[in-house]
Amino acid sequence: MTHTLLGRLAAPLQAWGATARFSRRDTHLRPTKSAVIGMCAAALGHDRTTPLGPLADIRFGVRADSPGTPIRDYHTVGAGTYPVRPRDIITDHRRAAALSASLDAATGTSFGHHHLTNWYGAPKKITTDPLSGTLISAELSRTALITERWYLADAAFVTALQHPDHGLLKEIAHALEHPKRLLWLGRKSCPPSGTISGGVHHGPIETVLARTALLPEATTDRPWAWIETPPTTPGSTPTNDQPLTFHPDQRAHTTRWETRTRITLTDTTIEWDVIP
Fold first, then answer.
1. What is the DSSP string of 31-88?
2. Are the beta carbons of 62 and 158 closer than 8 angstroms?
3. Percent of the chain at pLDDT above 90?
C-alpha cells in the first residue's frame, strides 16, 4: 500500500539554491527534493557520508499554498577589523605562534590563559593596528566583496513524500519534530517556524494533497503543485535535484521528472490542526 508523509515548510525567509555559485546565491521558487531529503536525513541524525538508502527511493511532491516573494539581500564579505579571540589560540597552535611575539605588548602581564575564554573574535591572519596597538585581522582590511543573495519571504509550502514503507515515513515524521541535527529551510539563516510534520496518510501524493486543507498562510485557493512522475508522463519536465549522495567529496545529483498542476481540493478531510 502507498503512504504519503506531509510536511509544512513555512518561515519568514527560505532559500532553495539550485544553481548557487560563488558571489551569487539564488533561490528556487519552491523547495527542491534534494534539500527536503537532506533535511530528513539530518533529522534522522545521518552524517553527510551516510548512504541515502531508502531515502533515495522516496517520490516527491510540493504544493505552494503561499508562493512568497523573492527578495534580494545586500550582503558583504570581508573589510573592517576586529579583536583577536584568544579562545581560538588555545586550540590552534599556528595562531598561538603568530601571536607569541605580540601578546605581552598588547595585553600586558595580567593576560593569562584563564582569561582567554573571555575574549571575543579570532581572525586567521594577525597584525597590530599601528594606531591603537591592538591585535587585528590583517586579511580583513581589504575592500569588501559584495555578494548577491536571494530569499523567498513569507512563503509556505506543503511537501509530500511517498513511499510504500509506512514505518520509514513514521520514523521521518517523528524525527522532523525531534531532530537529531539542526534543521533549516535551505540555509542556516532560515530556521523553520512551527510544526513541520503533517503525519503519514494512506494514498499517493496526488490524492493526499487534494484532501489536505490549505495552510493558514495560504494566499490562493487553487495552489500550484509539482509532483514527481515517470519521464514518459505527458507534460513532464526534467529537474536536476535527485540526490545521489551528500558526501562532501562526492556530492552529486541526477535528473528526475515532474509535472506542474493546479490542485483543486476535493475533500479536505485532513486538517492541519488535527493531523495524527
1. --HHHHHHHHHHHHT--TTS--GGGGG-EEEEEEEE--EEEEEEEEES-S-----HHH
2. yes
3. 58
